[in-house]
Design a protein that fits this description.
Chain B: Keywords: FAD, Flavoprotein, Oxidoreductase. The structure holds 2 protein chains of 2 kinds. By secondary structure, chain A is of the alpha+beta class. Chain A has helices at 23-30, 86-94, 103-116, 122-129, 140-154; strands at residues 3-7, 10-14, 49-52, 55-58, 71-73. In chain A, 34% of the residues lie in helices and 13% in strands. Chain B has a domain at 181-298: CO dehydrogenase flavoprotein, C-terminal domain (Enolase-like, domain 1), CATH 3.30.390. In chain B, 33% of the residues lie in helices and 21% in strands. The radius of gyration of chain B is 20 Å and the shape is globular. The chains are: A alpha+beta, B alpha+beta. Bound molecules: FE2/S2 (inorganic) cluster (2 copies).
Chain lengths: 160, 307
């Protein structure tokens, strides 16, 4: 089928998309957006997290045809004109990245949390990241980064 | 299937906006698979276990994505995702909202639906025990007409239900809570993993009834009828619905034993059958104790965090 979707504000078209393809496959293999990572393809690791019409989803579990006419936001869209997104800055500041494989999904999950809940408590942070698996860091620095990003988002003047 | 290396095989994917179009598609080709959140279907497609000729997207059909209050309770559209159930229905359906909060992860709850869980009918699904404990009814619809099936008669085997191949699950009707309800599950961690076993309990004071549901401890989600009858009898004889007196320990223990006796658990990677039987007894005793304490204190139970 023919697929039209908006990714990070830009319209994309793809031809000959099969019904069994996932949104993740379309993003990576057809549109060359390699930010969302492919690991389990079962919804268990969160490496492929993106927003679909503003809702955080595992792109590996979204049948590509369902994304027809819809709007997708990936990690590539996080940074703006004026530099990295606060969650990206916080991940760097806290050393929350080792191999980086989980990072795009973690950033999207953290961004999603701050959209919904600007002043998250510990339980809310853990719940928001519960679907994102990190193979390296042990999570401590990631949790710290989310706390820092939340604090900076609430008080932007404290940003570096 | 690795999305990086294999060309996916052809499968028609229909995107109807009206229910009657979806029903016609279901009737037109045997084995057409309805898809809402994709959280189960995409995994089955990915493992190559399922190779349907066609799939029908249900997420564009607005009437399936709404819930409404009816005389009998809440009529929950098949494609309302768990996040919305947890956020919007915690007052009328506290037990179902609590169960919805324990599903997978935020990403999964944003997409997964009760209609999908009923269609998949995995014995491990988190919402089945509470649907059983509430005496919910499933609305099925096809080009041939509509029917309602009590959820207790809905599951016929692992992954199998009374749904005919051309039928869609349109909604599930859940009576509004009259008293405390609780859901608890045992598992290796709180998020993402499937429950090793689970238990739901709901108090129905107007009918002097205690509803139950067991997950992951039999080929199908099932209630514990003997435990229900036993506790209803005890509460009646001791006049506890009226006095709101404490539930004796031996009644709680016996309730747990009868709940465990209602299981037919398997041995698998998540746990042995002996463990499951034991854990169901513990969860049953604990959840009934909790809802009863809340009933005595005129509180509603919001469910229990995962163990
Ligand atoms: S690749 Fe999608 S959740 Fe793991
Ligand atoms: S940094 Fe390596 S998986 Fe998280």
């Amino acid at each position: 089928m023919h697929l039209t979707l908006t990714v990070n504000g830009e319209r994309h078209d793809a031809e000959g998309v099969a019904g069994t393809e996932s949104l993740l496959y379309v993003l990576r293999q057809r549109l060359g957006l390699y930010g969302a990572k492919n690991a389990c393809e079962q919804g268990q690791c969160g490496s492929c997290s993106v927003h679909l019409d503003g809702v955080l989803v595992c792109a590996c579990l979204v049948p590509a045809p369902q994304a027809h006419g819809r709007s997708v936001e990936t990690v590539e869209g996080l940074a703006g004109e004026d530099g990295p997104h606060p969650v990206q800055e916080a991940f760097l500041a806290c050393g929350a990245v080792q191999c980086g494989f989980c990072t795009p999904g973690m950033l999207k999950a953290a961004e999603d949390l701050l959209r919904r809940c600007p002043d998250p408590g510990e339980a809310e942070i853990k719940d928001a990241l519960a679907g994102n698996l990190c193979r390296c860091t042990g999570y401590r620095h990631i949790l710290e980064a989310v706390r820092l990003a939340a604090a900076r988002t609430r008080a932007p003047e404290s940003r570096p | 299937m690795s999305a990086e290396t294999e060309t996916p095989r052809p499968m028609d994917f229909l995107l109807p906006e009206r229910l009657d179009e979806a029903l016609e598609a279901m009737a037109a080709r045997a084995g057409t698979v309805p898809v809402a959140g994709g959280t189960d279907v995409m995994v089955r497609l990915g493992t190559g276990h399922e190779r349907p000729a066609a799939a029908v997207d249900l997420t564009r059909i607005v009437c399936l994505s709404r819930w409404e209050r009816t005389a009998g309770g809440i009529r929950l559209g098949a494609t309302v995702p768990y996040t919305r159930i947890a956020g919007e229905l915690a007052a009328p359906l506290p037990g179902l909202a609590a169960a919805a909060r324990t599903v997978g992860s935020r990403q999964i709850r944003n997409r997964g639906t009760v209609g999908g869980a009923l269609g998949t009918a995995s014995p491990t699904g988190d919402v089945h025990p509470m649907l059983l404990a509430c005496g919910a009814e499933v609305e099925l619809v096809s080009v041939r007409g509509a029917r309602r099936v009590p959820v207790r008669d809905f599951y016929t085997g692992p992954g199998r239900t009374v749904r005919a191949p051309d039928e869609l699950i349109r909604a599930v009707r859940v009576p509004e809570a009259e008293g405390p309800q609780a859901y608890a599950k045992a598992g290796r961690r709180g998020a993402v993993v499937m429950a090793t076993c689970s238990f739901a309990v709901a108090l129905w004071p107007s009918r002097a009834w205690v509803g139950t549901g067991i997950g992951s401890a039999a080929p199908v989600p099932r209630p514990a009828p003997e435990a229900e009858q036993f506790v209803a009898r005890e509460l009646g004889e001791l006049r506890l619905w009226q006095t709101r007196g404490p539930l004796p320990d031996d009644v709680l223990a016996r309730f747990g034993e009868l709940a465990a006796a209602a299981t037919a658990p398997a041995d698998d990677v998540r746990g042995s059958s002996a463990y499951r039987r034991h854990a169901v007894a513990v969860l049953a005793r604990r959840t009934l104790g909790r809802v009863w304490d809340d009933y005595r204190a005129h509180r509603r139970t919001e469910g229990e965090p995962c163990t």
